[in-house]
Amino acid sequence: MAAIEAFVTNADSDWGSAPYLGDCMIRNEQQLLNASKQLVVENGLLGALPLIGGLGGDGTSFFMVWDECQVEAEELLAIAASTTGPTVPCQGALTTLPIDRQSIMGVVPLGHLNPPSHTQTTDHVYFLLPGYEEEISPSVDLLAPAQGTVVQLSSSTSDTTGQTFTDWKIEISVCAGGTIRFGHVSTISAELLALTEAVPDACDRYGYEGYMFDSCSWRQIDVPVSAGDFLGTLGGLDTPNTALDFWAYDWDGDLHFAIDPSAQPEGILRSQCALDWFVDDLRTEFYAQRMEFGGIRADEGIGCGKVFQDVVGAAKGFWYSTVEVGGKWLDHLALVDDNVRSDHQVVSVASMLANPGYWIFQKQSTGTVNRDFAQVTAGSGVYCYDAFTADSTGPSGATDRFLIEVVDTDTLRIEHQGGSCGSSFSFSSPHVYSRYEMK
Prior knowledge:
This protein is α+β, with helices and mostly antiparallel strands. It contains eight helices and 20 strands. The strands form three sheets. Strands 1, 2, 4, 5, 6, 8, 9, 10 and 12 form a nine-stranded antiparallel sheet that branches. β5 and β6 form a beta hairpin. α3 (34-43) packs across α4. The two termini are 38 Å apart.
């Protein structure tokens, strides 16, 4: 089928499963009825998805093949990745612990959620400090984990805890085209602090009412460092900082795939797993410590976690409110994988349809209850989600559920309701979200 071959040829390079998906659809061509095949010919595969949903039985048979092929494609992609292994920029560049070994209580993989500011999956890992569970940590020294050059400093001032505090970000070039960044640094060294006496290159104010930040950055920094050099301190009893934010960026590689890349800063689109940049023994040590803030250990299928998870034509990934919402992040909705349990997924809500929070459930590969978001496709009907885990932050105690329908490739309806999925379910007053953020 020429239209499906064209889909494979033109698919974004980050959509690694597209060739397997296209091959599966071609192999199963005989199961597709003529009406759906004609729409694919006339509109292309992705353009036909929202139209096929209106075909009744013809559309149902198409989406049965589509769902099965998506599952097969993801499995084949995982096998290929495990066989060849990914190319890791700056691999082995980080040679030294950034903080004392006894002060690393755990390592949180990519994809942590904390709505509303982290409704979407986080693009960095966390090193948990002593006292993180009580949200009060003693001061811990931060050291350069590699030879490199400090290239940027940023300060962030906020009174979100009831008292004003300032913390820092430090960005270091550690290889050609690769930088790491530390965040929630409580103090920086005297040498670095002296550089911030200059006029900053940029300042910004962001957030939402009651949760505002004032940030400034100095981007013309050029300070050589050696592995083990003192950079500053983390934690401290007079700060709310109980974890180190740790980013890695590949500035020369391809951007990650996102349906709406304009909604993301370039740095997020270039994010990498900082753990994979360490020498092998330290990388192995950190992987053994992967966990969430609540103590749940990561399973082997998680790896370092995932940031971008958009699936074209399906519910999985990032969505944005079609109603204007005042304040940064508050228009966000994410339907994504859990970052420590590979058989769980999450409804992550910033505002609008519920109070900020996330609802975690065990995903299913069949039926209309707790169905894998990647298999909830345009025109396939309404799905219900319930039976949320105890570590979910969204549920308020009463039994609740979400109803979700992918209307077309760019539009989703969702509603938060009381009750479980054991009873009949239908929309009452759904909210509409789009794949594209309002500008």
